[in-house]
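Hi everyone, sorry if this is the wrong subforum. Our group has a chain we'd like a structural model of before ordering constructs, and none of us has done structure prediction before. Sequence below.
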Amino acid sequence: MCILRTLKYLALLGILSLLLFIQISPTDPYVVISATTEVLTYRVSRAEVAAIPLIEAQVRSTDAGFTTLKDEEGRPLFTGLLEPTKDSIVCYRYADGRVSIVVDGGDKSAGTVKLPDGRQHELSTRAMFVVNMSQGTLQRLPIAGPTEIGQEYGVQAVPQGKGAFSRPIMSKGNINVFGRGRFWPYKNDLYPVPGGNIPLPAGGRLSSGDTLIPHSPTAASPWFGIAQITPEGFDISATTVSSNLRLYRMGSTGESETFALSVLTQAISDPVFQWVVLFFGTLQVLISMWGSRSRRKRETFDNVKNILKPFTQHLRRLFQLR
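Answer:
Right subforum, don't worry. Here is the predicted structure as tokens:
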């Protein structure tokens, strides 16, 4: 009985431990984003990572006095390093074999350009560069801040001219979610979350939740990665630490779905939690086995007592007669 009572106390302690484990504040999940899109916009949170080397990129802005080259049509060309300022908004678009890079600084400078001869030039509040991909001078672009990819495929504009017209969209994608261990020996280790591979619908928009207004306050988590340029658009490979990714579906009117993992889901997936469940599951089996053994002992004793009961009663009557 003493052993059984001890096991029950341990089981109660285990239940309390599991409840405490679940209530402990979890860390935000680690998310890997893979997608193909024709448009990407992000807020620069690390300027040193956001720099873009350009070779003979067309300058499509009034502030082009720093250029020394021109193309066949007399448009200014820029070769050098584009450095967007922190908290400026950078937008990449892909269409008809060309990539446009727009940097919006709001009411401040959009950034700085560094030329091969060592000169530097501070840009005005907005700058635009266009790269013809047939030249093969640009292969990938950086992602360094809160981001959104794609646009909701909805009402179409009237096409102009004879060229192909297409609204920039996200054509495919998925996110993979990983939890982060909170206890030794798996503290800070990444682990897969069941059901954490989530496909993204074509024609939708995935957002970190940032307003993407230059130099405005934000609590959105940054993304870090690259946008590989392909004939289909940008192949996005990025990571973020966030539990609040938002998905805007095709045809929606501004409503978003939020990818938010519950505390319980993360706790159940934690490797330490698995070991705790295994330990106390084994303990419960031991309690059941010990309880069954005790019951069998009591049943055996009762059976023997019932068998001997007529003889003991007869002996009592004999002693009473004497």
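For your construct planning: The chain has two domains: 1-29+263-322, 30-260. Residues 267 and 273 are 7 Å apart (CA to CA).
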